Amino acid sequence: MKQGIHPAWHATPVRCMTCGTTWTTGSTVASLTVEICSNCHPFYTGEQRIVDTEGRVDKFMKRLQQRDQIRSQQVQREEERTPLDLPLTDLKLGERYTTILQEHGIAVVSDVLDRLGDEGDDNSILAIQGIGRKVVSDMKKSLRARGYELSN
C-alpha cells in the first residue's frame, strides 16, 4: 500500500436528528448525522407516525376543502338556473349548428321555444340556412328528454 494517499480513518460518532440517539462507527469523516435511525424508523419500531414537513398535510386538506367548496357552488348555480335559461350548447346539437343558431339570435332554450311557437311550426327555424329537419328533430328530442312539452 502506498504511503500518504489514503484518508485518515476515525472512530466517528453518528447522531440521529429525530430521536437524538448516538453510536460510533468507523469512517473517513470526523462526525456524521442522519435524519432517521433504526430506533425511530416506523419499519423497525412498528409505529406509524405522520411526519408533517412544512404543513404539507394541512395544505393538502385545505386544497381538498377548496375543491369541494367550488364543486358545491357549481351545483348550486346549476340548480338556480331556470329551465328556459338553459344554454343551447346543453342540447348537444353539435358545434356547427349551435354556432349557426347563435348567429341568428337563438342562444337559449326560450329562444328555441319562441321560434317554434305554440303550434310547433318548424318553418322559422328551418328558414335558417344550414339548419335542416334532422337538426330540428334532434333539438325537439333533446327538449322532450329534458321535460319540455312540444306539440308535433
Main attributes?
alpha+beta; 11% strand; 152 residues; Rhinovirus 14, subunit 4; DNA polymerase, domain 1; single chain; 3-stranded mixed beta sheet
In N-to-C order, the SSE pattern is: EEEHHHHHH
| Rg (CA only) | 36 Å
What are the segments in which pLDDT stays under 50 over at least 5 consecutive residues? none
Order of strands, widest sheet? 2-1-3
Q: Remind me, CATH topology of the largest domain?
A: DNA polymerase, domain 1
Overall pLDDT: 82
User: What is the CATH architecture descriptor of the largest domain?
Assistant: Orthogonal Bundle
Question: What does the overall shape look like?
Answer: rod-shaped
| Separate helix tally | 6
Structural class: alpha+beta
Largest β-sheet summary:
3 strands, mixed
Helical residue percent band: 40-55%
Give the oligomeric state of the chains in this entry, treating copies of one chain as homo and distinct chains as hetero.
single chain
**Overall number of strands:** 3
The first-to-last residue Cα distance is: 103 Å
> In the CATH hierarchy, what is the class of the largest domain?
Mainly Alpha
Strand content: 5-15%
